[in-house]
């Protein structure tokens, strides 16, 4: 090798952390017209050195070699390709087996550990796979395959045996009636199961996935959820011992949507009401202490005692719900909730009567909030990340790819194999 090749060989040996058994025997460049040039590095096993049997891990002789290549991190502006005649160990006990290379995460991998670690870090930072593939000059198919293997290995090693509090929520997979259901570990703040659909059977499929990784549905003590009947029935069937807590956010959201429906319906009744309610959407939906001076003045102007607007009465019922959640204990909250439901049922606001029926149906789940104070706030934040992943990828045609990215970004998976090898070789 000339001086430049020798310098590159020493640089590569240090960056890869090659031991005494390996040496860089050749380095050369290949020019590609109209494409990025390539740097090729040949690594050879030193003569006279025994090889390790990958089964019994004892030193054995070499049976023969098989030529293989790996994609490595770019060195300077060059795509770097590693070549090696991989020795096969001649083990009298276990037979002939190809040796594991010190720079690869798994057998038959096409990438070095450093390259895999770089791709995983890019994906964890929120980059879309197409953007990663373009940046590292690889096809998106190979990047998907790399990430799929890494996530699958990390998921196989995940242990959910300590999961006792979970949250279940749905999020849109794409436009239209296409949803996935997500189960999250509320204590570990991680996504632990994902399944297609949001039907009653979705809870059972989520529990099956939980138990595939050491979890136990019979040990789950609490489930937080929204007010979807499918989840209520599914949890009762699959985890009957678990207390169901209806998420506070979804209860308040139910009231706010009903208030807005009342406003939209009422403003269509007459020109006078249209004038009074014009531009007042957030006058009714915001808490009183969050209103601007102009919005507060408008709400006082439209007070139900002065205008008899149904929207104003519905807003008062929404404020009463906030008072319910201000109660110190479950008993006082139960009395306040019952009074609110009675008020709604005896009002002339049709939308609020529907809300009251829902609140009475979910009464126990709503009141369980005072026992534990659990919410789906982590799941709501998780949903925003899931939607950002979907938007960055411009949607997913395959549910498998969508699941993979959810676990990669939100599963708190341990990519120990990539980390250990990357640290050892860098």
Descriptive tags:
single chain, 426 residues, alpha/beta, 6-stranded mixed sheet, 5-stranded mixed sheet, 19 helices, 49% helix, 20% strand, disordered C terminus
Can you tell me about this structure?
By secondary structure, this protein is α/β, with parallel strands linked by helices. Strands 1, 2, 3, 4, 5 and 6 form a six-stranded mixed β-sheet that branches. Strands 9-8-7-10-11 form a five-stranded mixed β-sheet, sandwiched between helices. The chain is elongated. 33% of the residues are buried. The C terminus is likely disordered.
The helix/strand series, from N terminus to C terminus, equals HEEEEEEHHHEEEHEHEHHHHHHHHHHHHH
Helix content: 40-55%
State the end-to-end distance. Answer: 24 Å
Q: Give me the Rg, rounded.
A: 30 Å
Shape, per Cα inertia axes: elongated
Q: What proportion strand?
A: 15-25%
Q: Mind summarizing the main beta sheet?
A: 6 strands, mixed
Mean pLDDT: 89
Structural class: alpha/beta
């Amino acid at each position: 090798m000339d001086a430049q090749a020798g310098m590159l060989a020493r640089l590569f040996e240090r960056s890869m952390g090659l031991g005494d058994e390996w040496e860089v025997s050749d380095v050369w460049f290949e020019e590609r017209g109209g494409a990025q040039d390539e740097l090729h590095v040949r690594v050879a096993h030193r003569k006279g050195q025994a090889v390790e049997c990958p089964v019994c891990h004892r030193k054995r002789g070499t049976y023969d070699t098989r030529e293989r290549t790996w994609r490595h991190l770019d060195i300077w502006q060059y795509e770097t390709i590693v070549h090696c005649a991989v020795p096969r160990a001649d083990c009298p006990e276990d037979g002939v087996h190809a040796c594991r290379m010190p720079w690869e995460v798994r057998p038959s991998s096409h990438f070095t550990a450093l390259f895999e670690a770089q791709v995983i870090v890019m994906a964890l930072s929120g980059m879309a796979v197409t953007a990663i593939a373009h940046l590292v000059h690889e096809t998106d198919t190979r990047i998907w395959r790399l990430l799929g293997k890494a996530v699958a290995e990390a998921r196989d090693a995940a242990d959910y045996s300590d999961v006792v509090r979970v949250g279940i929520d749905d999020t849109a997979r794409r436009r239209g009636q296409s949803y996935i259901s997500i189960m999250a570990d509320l204590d570990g703040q991680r996504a632990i199961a994902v399944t297609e659909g949001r039907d009653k059977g979705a809870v059972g499929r989520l529990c099956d996935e939980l138990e595939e990784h050491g979890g136990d549905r019979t040990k789950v003590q609490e489930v937080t959820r929204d007010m979807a009947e499918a989840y209520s029935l599914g949890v009762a069937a699959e985890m009957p011992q678990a207390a169901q807590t209806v998420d506070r956010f979804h209860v308040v959201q139910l009231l706010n949507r009903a208030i807005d429906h009342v406003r939209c319906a009422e403003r269509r009744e007459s020109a006078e009401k249209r004038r009074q309610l014009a531009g007042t959407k957030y006058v009714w939906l915001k808490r009183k202490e969050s209103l601007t001076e102009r919005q507060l003045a408008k709400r006082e102007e439209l007070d139900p005692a002065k205008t008899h607007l149904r929207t104003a009465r519905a807003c008062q019922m929404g404020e009463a719900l906030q008072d319910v959640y201000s109660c110190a204990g479950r008993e006082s909250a139960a009395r306040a909730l019952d009074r609110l439901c009675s008020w709604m049922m005896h009002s002339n606001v049709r939308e609020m009567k529907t809300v009251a029926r829902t609140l009475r149906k979910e009464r126990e789940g709503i009141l369980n909030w005072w026992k534990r104070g659990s919410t789906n706030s982590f799941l709501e934040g998780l949903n925003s990340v899931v939607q950002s992943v979907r938007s960055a990828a411009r949607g997913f045609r395959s549910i498998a790819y969508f699941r993979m990215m959810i676990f990669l970004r939100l599963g708190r998976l341990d990519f120990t194999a990539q980390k250990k090898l990357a640290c050892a070789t860098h």
